[in-house]
Design brief:
The structure holds two protein chains of two kinds. Chain A is 18% helix and 25% strand. By secondary structure, chain A is an alpha+beta fold. Chain A has a nine-stranded mixed β-barrel with strand order 1-2-3-4-5-6-7-8-9. The longest helix of chain A has 18 residues, at 2-19. In chain B, strand 7 and strand 8 form a beta hairpin. The two termini of chain B are 34 Å apart. A nine-stranded mixed β-barrel of chain B has the order 1-2-3-4-5-6-7-8-9. By secondary structure, chain B is an alpha+beta fold. Chain B has one domain (40-245): Calycin beta-barrel core domain (Lipocalin), CATH 2.40.128. The chains are: A alpha+beta, B alpha+beta.
Chain lengths: 261, 248
Amino acid sequence: MISRMKSLLAFASAAALAMSPVVLPAKVQAQTAPVAQAASSLPAGANPDFQGLWRTSGRGVRGRDGSSGGCCSEEGWHDVPAMLLPWAQDVMAKRDAGLKSGVIVPTNTQECKPDGVPTVIEIPYPFQFLQSKNEVIIMYEADYQVRRIRMNGEHPKTPKLSWYGDSVGRWDDGVLEIDTVGLSKLGQTNWDGIPHSDQLHVVERYKMTAPGAMELTMTLTDPGTFTGPWTIVKHFRQLKERRLLEYVCAENNRDAAVPVE
Amino acid sequence: MQDVKNLNVSRPRLRGPTWMALAASVSLVALAGSAHAAESGADFTGIWLNDAPSSVLATVDGTPVPLNAAGKSAFAKVKAGLKSGKEIDAVKRYCLPEGVPRLMQSAYPMQIVQSPSQVTVIHESHHTFRIILIDGTHPADDDILASYMGDSVGRWAGTDLTVDTVGFNASEPLDAAGLPHGEKLHITEKLSRSGDGRQLVDLITIEDPEFYTKPFTVKASFTARPDLTIEEYVCGEPHRKIAKAVKP
């Protein structure tokens, strides 16, 4: 599982970065990226500037009721089946059995398929927001994935199904709300491979909670897969660095289904 | 990914000592550059389409590409290999990024997004992007993560943007014909609007003393296409027929 190992390596090094007592010369410090301001510190009517690099503050994603131990926590997806319809439970049970037997059922992430929405949101590599009046673009370090959000746009009546879906956005009292439909069932809900159907509807609400700190509240609705709406809260911190590094999944990357020679 | 187990290309090498060192150095090296608004500059924002996409590089003055002896030998070897099947075009076969400069010659549209501190070029082809830090400086040689896109910094000179890119890996040739390059590749680009302002010209100067006797310049020219959007491009899936899709 090289892809996962790569992730863990980067994860570990990022943790080291957070802990390393790097003392910057004053001149260099002055050149760091501007810190995003919390919505509360902005003049009335102004939208916060999310531009810059962000990464997760940890994998501590919360369960549907806000409790810990739900999807994507360090415990993995084992608490999830309760909210999955039987067909999706079967998929996960097969994956689980594969992990035990060694006949792995690889996830999209392990096979270098696009993470797509919403899995890409969970990948612990940095990402960058670009903002203009009409568009918000999110660029992810993981495999050069890019999402486009049409601000104040509307979904087409029958969106073409794709990995990243059709995203429209709006500002709601300083909160960036992104609404995504048209997500192909080829995609998965997270990097543990929880499936979803073409009916998946993702609403993300990005809020600046403090300078350089961002909170995402994401609600997944998919009557084809989940027993009810599933709300996930995730925290991000802004990075001082200005560059996303290159990550190419297709590069000699092997997944667990292919014997390592 | 089909054929993944046969994939035998070198990975971008980390020239620094360890990942840990990289993690520590990133915070030092990545901070250079100013976030202040540029005094000069032009607006390149929008969707652009290459006027004459080509997978093979040709010099702007029509002279042969100035390969030196090592370059000729490497080029001949790759050309023969491509013909015999011993070499493969990893971009097409394994979905690897086209990298710079090949990416700038793509038939798929690209989008430029600008802020005072960063010019971002987002390509439909292979869903890749280039980040150009305005008034930035390259990381020290030892801290560069060799990559397909390289490390790009830009500077405005009036309404021209000069982009300086180093830090390439040597995993792929410069173009589909197999023109060689090494890790010392240095690319300088001058981007400017031309004609009635609907054109964007990128003069790309390629310098690599390992394989070439002197720098040479190729050109990519683009037309503004606000009617186009950048669509999802997933290697291994069928894409839109680009020539038909972009007919004005």
